[in-house]
Amino acid sequence: MESPRLLDAGEAALVAEFGTTVDPAIHDRVLALDDALRAAPPEGLTETVPTYRSLMIHYDPLVLDRDDLAERVLALAARPGAARAGAALWTLPCCYDPACAEDIGAVAQATGLTVERVAALHAGAEYRVYMYGFAPGFAYLGGLPRELAVSRRATPRPPHPENALLIGGGLAAVGTFPMPTGWYVVGRTPERLYAPHRPDPFPVAVGDTLRFEAVDAATFADLETRAAAGEFVAHRREAA
What we know:
The protein is an alpha+beta fold. The protein contains 5 helices and 12 strands. It folds into 2 domains: 5-78, 2-Layer Sandwich (Gyrase A, domain 2), CATH 3.30.1360; 88-238, Beta Barrel (Cyclophilin). It is elongated, with a radius of gyration of 19 Å. One of its GO terms (molecular function) is ATP binding. It holds the Pfam family CT_C_D. InterPro entries: CT_C_D (IPR003833), Cyclophilin-like_dom_sf (IPR029000), PxpB (IPR010016).
């Protein structure tokens, strides 16, 4: 098994990089190392942050020696990884009506597909949650169908609605807060991937799987009202 490349990120963080592509096998190794460090954290380790292809490990250099940490990381990374325990399969309702999917026509034009085909491809795929970042609950997803692999915009579009489903650069995402973006808005889910009033503000975990279930505009409006009142409108079950 190939060892990860270790990169110093300043004086208090070490990055273990396992590859250069968006690949479930690479991500599995990232999560396996994350789980191993969390299960038996060395004194001085302060935080771990998994990404698509690497794990950033924050530590206190006055407590934990960098070379000792590197040695432990390489030893743990050499072990066979197991699937992350408790990974879940989520089904999120999604509306592809143009009122919720402001850019779906632009994506259809860029790909040569119909709007209906763009929606069907997006809803028919299964997505892995690779990482959180950029904003609270902003979930970066892999698994976008190749037919929808449009490049990002040359210039950002105006702020998208909350809980927008985004695609761009061959990837997908769920954008929790309105903000300008170079990605394309192809739908919207009423579910909140960031809900600070809940015991767990981030219900979806890195390593989980997402599916989207198409709903019409009337159903979306009903679910949006219920979700705004605090109800879970997504469905969760343990992954096989």
